Amino acid sequence: MLNDQSNRRISKPRRMSEDLVEILTTDIRNGIYEEGDSLPSERTMVEEFGVSRITVREALASLERSGLIAQHPGMRAKVRIPDSATVVEMLSGAATLQLAQSGGVEHFQDVRTLVETGVVQLAAERIDDTQIAHLRELLAQNQASLGDVEQFARTDMAFHAAIAEVLANPIILAFYLAVDRWLSDVRRTTLARDGQMETAFAAHCDIFKAIETRNPRDAQIAMRAHIEQVNRVYGGG
Length: 237
Known about the structure:
This protein is mainly α. Helices cover 69% and strands 2% of the residues. The chain has helices at 16-29, 42-49, 53-65, 84-89, 92-100, 104-126, 129-144, 149-165, 170-182, 184-191, 196-212, 216-234, and strands spanning 69-70, 78-79.
């Protein structure tokens, strides 16, 4: 529905489309427009806010990039509430550029260390018997893939993802999977080194043992040692 607040016309010196984005975002956050609701037509917003149609379209494009609305030809924009995976996915473009910068991989590895050591600590505290059995099965698949870089990389990722899934936290899982995907080239580069698959599998065994015995401290230590070893190999150390 159209907000009936008065004096919503835009006159600030910054780009008017930015002001309109801020107003509409606030309206969505405050529940004036709920998920699935249509925003006012372009013509209505032109009249209400005293801006041009171009400004309205710029604002709508910005909201669409932010994942707050969906637009289809010939239809009014509809509000959508992005889930955590969508929010993280929107960072992928910037993340790829950051990785290409000097020191970019090292910065992301630092993030991975913080995320995975925290995740494994909580997983060791919360994991149930069914999840332990699933993790054991993934570890066996990881072992069976020794010698095949691509298959080992897939089972490696599956093992780490299963640890994150224990927390049943969609925000943490989405962020973890995104960081893991952004660093997938690092994983494959290191696994191609002589003996690295065997070293990684041994580290996975240490991590699993700590989780299986529900020892958060040992799980955190094992995960940190694993990631730091990978970092050294990637850096040529």
